[in-house]
Amino acid sequence: MALRRHRFITLVFGTTTVNVLFNVLGAAMVKELGWERSILSNGLSIQIGLAGISVIILGFLTDRWGPRIPAALMALIFGLGILALGTLQDTEVAFYLICALIGFASGSANPVVHAGVLSAWFSDKRGIALGILMAGLGTCGFVMPFLANSLLSIGGWRLSFIIIGLLCVIIPGSVYAFVTRMPAAHDAERVKARQEGRTAAESL
Is the distance from CB of 13 to CB of 140 less than 8 angstroms? Predict the structure, then answer.
């Protein structure tokens, strides 16, 4: 049960976080920076487009190295990218680059790694485990607007991005780095498959 709770909490700061933050904080952000709303939409499109590629990259890295290190590093980049939005000046190029960075690391905020880990650990209760996991994404859409609006009223949009970015670093990053692990038998199979693949390639 603890494993499922950790995964649930991680996805509260999951892939829908950026969309929610842009919706809640976007008006104040573009007003201060003097931008058109379309700039914000373009940045979100860049982030979403690269998020799909990020999931594939993370899946590849997980197959080779296991989920812990690749996912923890991506979570660090994802959270720092959100934090960086709080320090943004009126430079569109910098904004688009930050959105690209967030998108590139969005695989860590996606259920793909968690689903793989839970499927490896659970057999008889795999359905409920995955159900609890996916509920985290829905909870993000419920909790994140309240959190962002509260921070917006306290310290403005910049403080909101900075604090939520830090939370996205600390909470998912800690789960990936200190909790996420595969069963020993699964890790052994992965290492064996890598070794056999290398041996086959060397024999060609």
Answer: yes
Within 105-125, where are the H helices? 112-121
Note the CATH number of domain 2-196. Answer: 1.20.1250.20
Residue 32's contacts (CB-CB under 8 Å, 6 or more residues apart) are: 157
Report the C-alpha gap between 156 and 29 in whole angstroms. 9
Q: Provide the pLDDT for residue 1.
A: 44
Residue 66 dihedral angles phi and psi, to the nearest 5°: 85, 170
CB neighbours of 198 closer than 8 A, spacing ≥ 6? Answer: none
What is the predicted pLDDT for the residue at 28?
A: 96
Residue 196 has pLDDT above 80, yes or no: no
Residue 60 tokens read as 């590849």
Which residue is listed with tokens 């991506």? Answer: 74
Quick one: which H or E segment has residue 30? helix 17-33
pLDDT in tens, 130-178: 666 666 667 777 788 999 999 999 999 999 999 999 998 998 888 777 7
pTM for this one?
0.79
